[in-house]
Amino acid sequence: MKYLSMAVVIKQGKVLIQERYRSNQGMVFEFPGGEVETNESGTDAAIRELYEETNMSGLSHVATYSDINEYGGRIYYVVLHASNHDEPRANDLNRQQTFHWLCLDNLPIDEFYKADVSFIRQHLDKHLQREVGEMA
């Protein structure tokens, strides 16, 4: 059973979402992330995957959440804070990635995996609200 880890990057009250191509699904919306490697924590995996997919590094770790995905594997959601100058850059042209900074109300919630929707509904709003509050 493989474990997955997602980087949930927040900046100025918005969350980073990637739109990318998957051969078995076409274009999908998701958090940057991927498989947790042997002897790697969920947090470390999300930070590594974020760098591999976006070239973003040095972000502040805010929190890590864990759940079971619809395939029965463990999934981690690692909330990271980006500064105003942090911007993603696609590393792999085959992925056809486009990055979006979106408010909670603009997330295409129906396009996400069930576990992602659960995380978004249970935890993301409080982190985005905290971010907006710190900006005020």
Structural commentary:
This protein has 136 residues and is α+β, with helices and mostly antiparallel strands. The chain is 26% helix and 35% strand. It has 2 helices and 7 strands, in the order ββββαβββα. Strands 1, 2, 3, 4, 5, 6 and 7 form a 7-stranded mixed β-sheet that branches. A hairpin with a 3-residue loop joins strand 2 (14-22) and strand 3 (26-30). The protein is globular, with a radius of gyration of 14 Å. It starts with a strand and ends with a helix. The mean pLDDT is 90.
Overall pLDDT metric = 90
Low-confidence stretches: none
Number of strands: 7
Beginning-to-end CA distance, first to last residue: 44 Å
Helix/strand/pairing category: alpha+beta
Estimate percent helicity.
25-40%
Shape: globular
Distinct helical segment count: 2
Succession of helices and strands: EEEEHEEEH
